Amino acid sequence: MKKGILLLSALTVLGASSVAEAKENVCVFDLLGKAGESYKLLEEWALAAKSWGGDINLIAYQDEAKVESDFKAGECDAFYMTSMRARSYNKFAGSIDALGGVPSNSIAQKAIAYVLDKRNNKRLVSTIGKEQFEVAGIGQIGTAFIFVRDRSINTLEKGKGKKFAVLHYDQAQKMMVERFGAVPVMSDISNFIKKFNSGEVDIVAAPAYAFKPLEMYKGLGTKGAMFNFPVVNVTADLIIRPGKFEDNFAAQSRSWFVRQLPKSFALVKRMEAEIPAKYKMNLEKEDQEKYQKLLREGRMDLTKQGIYDATMMTVLKKARCTVERTNFECSLGGE
């Protein structure tokens, strides 16, 4: 009898220690895999997480769809991928990437810091079915600009009928491209630049992060251009299953991400500056305002449809009008 009790006690201790020693699997999407800046950021985060009770095992992915399928299958306790794809897990955080909602790095930094502030703790927890998810961080990837294979496509009118690569899972992109009169070509984040470089599409929106490693100069050739008009700010969300982590882990993680923002934005600005000047073109002020109005109308429609979070749209407008008080929209209602 005593032997049986001792054996049971030993097994209980072993079981408890194995639970304590279990690592949290965090699946990280980065177009460049372990060589990319997103993965490097998460390596720093994993080190910091040890002091919050985390024992993180990072798994690198270059296929974002695979991250999501593995997360749904329970192979990941958390994931880090673009907010456009992560929006279905938390619409509030995912709406930072609303089309035209964040037109500059300074506004982006304000917006991310606001979302991760403790006043929004409740908004960052969501329940889908029987599962709970929590936003534990947001990272800046960069402002996406319009790239064209032929710089003569320099107005909306000239873009009508042209093929524009859009991410198939983001309804917002498809709707706006159709509104502009271009033809949306369903793509994935792993192949949309390849389609541009090969000539399968005429237009693409991409951040500076993609320019050098994905060799966008091949698609630009001698006739192409990048228009200095921001269409969307690209971020990445760290979403966790809170039950797999220590209490207060997510709050400490969010604070860590906020502290990294100055460094992240410095990197983004450096990558933007590294794009050769010969490709950069400015739109006329009149055209810029016209496009801003179209993007604003699109955001409002998408918010009514429930794709974007209404509270976040109000937050972003306040941020834009704090930085650019003379902007036409600051005297208008609706967002």
UniProtKB/TrEMBL annotation:
The keyword Cell membrane does not apply. Residues 1-22 form the signal peptide. The keyword Signal applies. This is DUF6091 family protein. InterPro entries: AdeT1/2, TRAP_DctP_sf. It comes from Acinetobacter chinensis. Keywords: Signal. It holds the Pfam family AdeT1_2.
